[in-house]
Design goal:
The complex is a heterotrimer of chains A (694), B (99) and C (519). Helices cover 71% and strands 3% of the residues of chain A. With 694 residues, chain A is mainly alpha-helical. The longest helix of chain A has 76 residues. Helix content of chain B is 77%, strand content 0%. Classes of the chains: A mainly alpha (694), B mainly alpha (99), C mainly alpha (519).
């Protein structure tokens, strides 16, 4: 069965990495063809394994159904009972201290879903890159690292045990480092790469300590065993909590959650396709994946099952709002998208925190497509005007790049959550989860957070679209000698595919209709078995869907009015000079005024700027300060303690020995006869002693 | 047999030799003084050998003479080289080993 | 043939370099090519013999001493010529005999001033004898002799071929190590006089095998602590552990590249090897009492070494300080007195030998091209010599403990093991150490990547404009390729090392485990 052979995917990609490094430069297309071929193979395997997995799940359900019902569709009760065993393989990697360390594959719905996401996005990015970074001086290296990244990422999502998981987790970090710093000649790029790697290392401390705690708590590195034991209550709550909290630190760094998110916007220094692949669709969701994979640990360790307010949900919630508010004040189109990614990842973490497992993973799935589409679209625009600055060098791009515009609009719609695009379905599920799960409405606050987030998403994306595609061309876009032009087919077709997926991906978890159609994503992806906790069941909630949609539309409308129409631009000044009453009277749109002036402008202005300020000065300042501080301390210790005290003792004993040597050397005149005289004198003295004492 | 005379002769020769070794500046004279010391020993060896009616003393004396010959050979070579390098065999000037 | 090897293999490995050195003494100084070839051939013969030994080594019994030779040596003090190897010696032995030819090949066209290949290579070969002997000796006096033999060639290497302050560095190195050795030999003598077998009879032996069997029976606890203390200082200086480390940066900075490589790759391991082979099996009880303090110094070393790295302005000195941090992980692993920990330590030794050896090779090549190691003046190595820049990046990644490369397997199990140290050791204390050590990995990434950024990334300084720099040359490739390959191979198949060390580590821990059972 192909599910036993999924390890071929990382193996193929690793081979491709080696092959590109070895022969890439001699190939006609400089190694890109090797990478594309390899990813293509992986894509085929991923699709085949998805098909096989669906059959596997169906078989399990048929087997679980009572015999007399075999011909009929499995009933709901049978579905709930049927356990679908994950497909695993395992070989011993090494043995030490009486413990077997293994590598292997663990294939269940979650892994299969990730295979699809990773291989599709990776394939699109590979193809897109042939044009986007075409002619780059490190074209071959670029593709080599894309291959290595894909290999590590696939390895990560099929990890059977935690050691293997840590290994691939670090390897994706390495690839991220190498690709962010792809143009390392400029210092800001290598700074960004360093920042990404080091921030992730901070999280890795949590990862390592957390995984080690789990190992000693369960006596195993095996993810299934850890989950089973956590589920069965064989591990004390304290240990689970410690492990979960440590692992949360890793999630914060890898998945760009507050307060360790600062590297992610900086990581936009890398080539745009890399941002799409690594910093939007795949690597940054590794943290989400880890929580999903070890969900029993988090579920019990953080008492998600009891419906308590918990670390994960709070971090997610803060990130949703923090990320979104920051996106308002960015002029760099990629940074807008980066903060948007931060915010969307916050949704996923929040969903996991409230116990809406499927909602989080479903959002991961849809987000990968539309966010990759947005990034690739922004790259397409930037490719044409050679700048990422929306204020200075863009505007009116719709005229020049209609295809890019169309795909960008579709993906934006999906991100905002417009019916029936993908983002609507997944975001709605998260909101439903926050509403319906938890005891005593503990998670209701996250419903509010999610709705406000949706509102802000709508507004900042409208701003982004306005600045990029509408209005008058500025700067490079207005250059009469080099008018912007639509990108070539190699760039545009991946955009089409992404926006197509942004339309249809949401139907994967269609919440209505007969069993054969309803909630298929949940049915095939969410594990059923003793390694997965009993998460709550979500029902589609019309009220939430309608309210959140309306709020999203309101966000668009307000932002539209503000930027497109230029309405209320004076309002801010008038508020500031405390003439609100006058404005209210004159203006018929009293409520709109209120919303626009206070909420939109306030959010877009001081609050976002304050958030940005805190981000840049406080949070970033702490990071930088810690670096500078430790350097200062290091300098002090080195200069004063190491060089003077510790070293001084050593030098002192040396000097003492030398001093006594200086004293004794005076005896050495070099005159043989004097030595002889001393010798005889000594002999006489000894003879005298001998004679007179004996 | 009276041994005192021989011993006194040996002691006198030894004392002269020691004086020469320590006090003379001329390298050749120092070598000759060393010969005197060795011969003082030889006299003692032969004398005690005769006293104890043993041949060992004479055998040792022969050994010493042989070694002395070799020693003088080496010594003279050193003095010769010294002279060649410095045009002087004054031992006070040779203090290259001063610490 | 196999029988001959069984009896003579280890001895050949130890003394063949001396034969080569003796041969070279007979060849006039001007025949430089001949000297190089003789030295290389000698080291390759040693390498070949060792590979052969490794080939017929019985891996199913790697916990036992094999190739054991037991001859009378100094009968007065009942010291014997006992050599043999088990699973702990073997990887280190292989590392040593691999590094020496690498160094000789690397030297081919790059002899440091004042040149003189004859003397330099003879010293290298004598060094090899000392290092191989230390890893094979199973008698304390023999061990001590080889341990000390290493000192002199290294002293001359630093003192004659070193940098500007070479005399200072060489003397510091010599004095420091000799001080430790003095205490160590006192401890060895104390063992000779005090050790008793199970029945209470005095052993009067220097044989490490018998002493390890007795594991300190009949010696009063306080006496054991003092005796262990002597060995601790002797080995700890060589490692070097935190307060005894100051000789290392000076020695490394001043030593010629070849000296630095041997120093980092092998000499530092003599200390940690001493802990694993001598101190712990012979005095497990004292080791158990000392362990929390050793671990404390180890984690201080990890953080402190890293902080000092951040403050350095000289590339080679930075790499030298990184050794302090890395050996901290090794010592942390050892001090847990668990199978995980000591396996990790042996792996850490091998990995550190390969990786830091490579880093010093690169520093040497950088110095050779730019005539400076001042970090401020360097930059843009990836533009000036791209291949070297990539290899440097690779080694920096390996050094910071990237999984999939050798360094990780030294760090991760060491951290893993300190969660649950040997029975009787304070768990909360070691868990604190674990977290501190894990934080140390962040620092490691910090200083290494910062170094990488300043050396390899960016564009070259203006002063190098118009200079042409040649990339890696053939001798460099030849000497680096095996090390680089091993870093990857061991990283992907850590079993290559763990499979050999694991049973041997179990027998090292026999004493500790019996102690735990006794309690």
């Amino acid at each position: 069965m192909i599910l036993h052979w999924v390890w071929l995917m990382p193996a193929i990609m690793a081979a491709s990495f080696v092959a590109i490094l070895a022969f890439g430069k001699r190939m006609p297309r400089k190694g890109s063809e090797i990478g594309i071929f390899a990813v293509g193979l992986c894509f085929v395997i991923a699709v085949l394994s998805a098909g096989t997995w669906i059959n596997h799940v169906n078989d399990a359900h048929h087997a679980a159904a009572p015999h007399d019902q075999v011909i009929q569709e499995p009933t709901a009760s049978a579905e709930a009972e049927a356990k679908v065993e994950p497909i695993t393989t395992e070989v011993t990697w090494f043995e030490m201290g009486g413990q077997k360390f293994t590598v292997g594959t663990l294939v269940d719905g979650l892994s299969v879903m990730m295979f699809l996401v990773v291989s599709i996005i990776s394939l699109l990015v590979h193809i897109y890159s042939t044009d986007y970074v075409g002619g780059d001086r490190r074209y071959t290296h670029y593709f080599a690292f894309l291959s290595l990244f894909t290999a590590s990422m696939l390895m990560l999502v099929m990890s059977r045990n935690t050691v293997q998981f840590i290994t691939s987790w670090e390897l994706v970090g390495l690839c991220s480092f190498a690709l962010i710093g792809h143009w390392w000649e400029e210092k800001p790029n290598s700074d960004a790469a360093l920042k990404a790697f080091l921030t992730n290392r901070v999280g890795d401390v949590g990862l390592m300590v957390g995984m080690i705690t789990l190992f000693w708590a369960t006596g195993s590195f095996d993810i299934l065993t850890i989950n089973q034991m956590a589920n069965a209550g064989d591990v004390t709550h304290l240990l689970l909590m410690v492990a979960a909290c440590c692992l949360t630190a890793a999630v914060m760094s890898k998945s760009g959650q507050f307060i360790l998110h600062t590297w992610l916007p900086d990581a936009m220094a890398g080539p745009t396709p890399v941002s799409a692949l690594i910093h939007a669709a795949t690597m940054v969701v590794a943290g989400i994946f880890m929580v999903a994979r070890l969900y029993s640990v988090f579920f019990h360790g953080l008492s998600i099952g009891d419906g308590n307010l918990n670390l994960l949900a709070i971090i997610g919630g803060v990130t949703v709002l923090g990320g979104a508010s920051l996106a308002f004040v960015q002029n760099d189109i990629k940074k807008v998208l980066a903060y948007s990614t931060v915010s969307q990842l916050g949704y996923m973490v929040m969903a996991l925190g409230v116990g809406a497992w499927t909602a989080a993973l479903f959002h991961l799935f849809t987000h990968a497509f539309f966010k990759a589409g947005l990034f690739l679209g922004s790259g397409s625009v930037a490719h044409s005007v050679h700048s990422f600055d929306m204020q200075k060098d863009m505007g009116g791009m719709k005229r020049f790049m209609p295809k890019t515009w169309a795909t960008f609009m579709v993906c934006t719609g999906a991100l905002i959550g417009i019916i029936p695009l993908a983002g609507f379905w997944s975001k709605d599920e998260i909101l439903t989860g926050a509403h319906s799960l938890g005891s005593n409405d503990a998670y209701e606050v996250f419903l509010v957070v999610g709705v406000i987030g949706a509102f802000m998403t709508a507004a900042y994306m409208t701003r982004c679209v306005y600045l990029t595609f509408y209005g008058e061309p500025r700067g490079a876009a207005a250059d009469p000698h080099h008018p912007p032009h639509e990108s070539g087919p190699v760039i545009v077709y991946p955009l089409y595919i992404c926006s197509f997926m942004a339309v249809v991906a949401g139907f994967a978890n269609w919440p209505f209709g007969p069993d054969a159609l309803k909630l298929r994503f949940e049915h095939y992806v969410q594990p059923v078995g003793d390694y997965f906790p009993a998460v709550g069941v979500l029902e589609f909630n019309w009220t939430i869907a309608i309210v959140s949609s309306l709020i999203g539309v309101t966000g668009i409308a307000i932002a539209y009015a503000y930027w497109f129409r230029g309405a209320f631009h004076g309002a801010t000044e008038r508020f500031r000079i405390a003439r609100a009453g006058h404005t209210l009277l004159v203006n018929k749109y009293y409520f709109d005024h209120l919303y626009t002036g206070v909420i939109a402008a306030g959010t877009a202005g001081p609050i976002a700027r304050a958030a940005n300020w805190i981000n840049q000065n406080v949070i970033d300042g702490v990071v930088n300060g810690a670096g500078i501080g430790s350097q200062k301390v290091a300098g002090f210790i080195y200069r004063h303690v190491d060089q003077q005290v510790v070293d001084g003792v050593v030098n002192g004993s040396g000097a003492g020995a030398e001093g006594s040597g200086q004293l004794l050397r005076r005896m050495q005149t070099g005159k043989v006869q004097q030595y002889g005289a001393l010798l005889f004198g000594g002999a006489v003295l000894l003879a005298g002693i001998l004679v007179f004492t004996l | 047999m009276l041994i005192n005379e021989f011993l006194l002769l040996g002691a006198a020769l030894f004392a002269i030799g020691v004086y020469g070794v320590l006090a003379r500046r001329n390298g050749v004279m120092v070598l000759m003084s060393i010969e005197l010391i060795l011969n003082a020993v030889n006299i003692n060896l032969v004398a005690f050998g005769a006293l104890h009616n043993s041949v060992v003393g004479q055998v040792f004396a022969l050994f010493v003479i042989t070694v002395a010959a070799a020693e003088v050979g080496v010594g003279l070579a050193i003095v010769l080289l010294l002279y060649r390098n410095r045009a002087s065999i004054d031992l006070d000037e040779v203090d290259a080993m001063r610490g | 043939m196999e029988d001959i090897l069984k009896h003579w293999g280890p001895s050949v490995a130890i003394f063949a370099p001396l034969v080569g050195a003796a041969l070279m003494m007979l060849i006039p100084k001007v025949e430089e090519e001949l000297h190089k070839w003789v030295a290389l051939l000698t080291s390759l013969i040693v390498f070949g013999v060792t590979i052969w030994i490794a080939f017929i080594f019985d891996y199913d019994h790697s916990g036992d001493l094999q190739f054991l030779v037991d001859h009378k040596w100094i009968e007065v003090i009942n010291s014997k010529y006992i050599v043999g190897l088990d699973g702990i010696s073997l990887p280190l032995l292989l590392l040593t005999v691999l590094v020496v030819p690498s160094v000789i090949i690397y030297s081919w066209n790059h002899f440091p001033e004042p040149h003189n290949p004859k003397a330099f290579l003879i010293l290298t070969l004598i060094l090899e004898t000392g290092m191989v002997g230390t890893f094979l000796a199973q008698d304390l006096i023999l061990f001590f002799v080889f341990f000390e033999i290493v000192l002199l060639p290294m002293y001359f290497m630093i003192g004659v071929w070193g940098g500007e302050q070479r005399m200072y560095a060489a003397i510091k190195f010599f004095l420091f190590t000799l001080f430790g050795s003095a205490l160590m030999i006192v401890s060895f003598l104390a063992l000779y006089f005090l050790a008793k077998d199970g029945a209470g009879n005095e052993l009067h032996t220097f044989s490490m095998i018998e002493l390890a069997k007795a594991h300190g029976a009949g010696i009063a606890h306080t006496t054991q602590l003092v005796v262990f203390g002597g060995m601790f200082i002797g080995f700890g200086i060589k490692v070097p552990m935190f307060p005894f480390h100051t000789w290392l940066p000076d020695a490394h900075t001043q030593a010629p590249t070849q000296g630095s490589v041997i120093l980092a790759a092998v000499l530092l391991k003599l200390g940690t090897y001493g802990f694993v082979r001598v101190a712990i099996p012979i005095l497990p009880e004292a080791a158990h009492s000392w362990a929390p303090y050793i671990a404390l110094l180890a984690v201080i070393g990890i953080i402190y070494g890293a902080l000092c790295c951040l403050a350095q302005t000289d590339m080679k000195r930075l790499i030298a300080f990184s050794s302090v941090a890395h050996m901290g992980f090794v010592m942390l692993g050892i001090s847990t007195l668990t199978s995980f920990g000591i396996n990790a330590a042996v792996m850490g030794m091998v990995a550190h030998g390969l990786i830091t050896g490579m880093l010093f090779f690169i520093a040497g090549s950088v110095k050779e091209r730019f005539h400076t190691l001042e970090i401020k003046r360097l930059g843009g190595l990836l533009l000036q010599a791209p291949r070297m820049g990539w290899i440097f990046g690779f080694c920096a990644m390996a050094s910071l403990g990237l999984p999939g490369l050798a360094g990780f397997w030294g760090e991760f199990p060491a951290i893993l093991s300190s969660y649950e140290p040997a029975a009787g050791l304070s768990e909360p204390l070691f868990r604190v150490y674990m977290v501190v050590a894990a934080i140390g990995t962040v620092f490691a990434a910090g200083y290494l990547l910062w170094l990488l950024q300043r050396i390899a990334f960016g564009v070259p300084q203006n002063e190098w404009e118009g200079h042409e720099f040649h990339d890696i040359e053939l001798p460099e490739w030849l000497s680096w390729a095996p090390l680089l390959a091993l870093i990857v191979v061991i990283g992907i198949f850590p079993n290559l090392v763990f499979h050999v060390t694991d049973p041997a580590v179990s027998s090292v821990l026999n004493g500790v485990n019996q102690l735990a059972l006794g309690k």
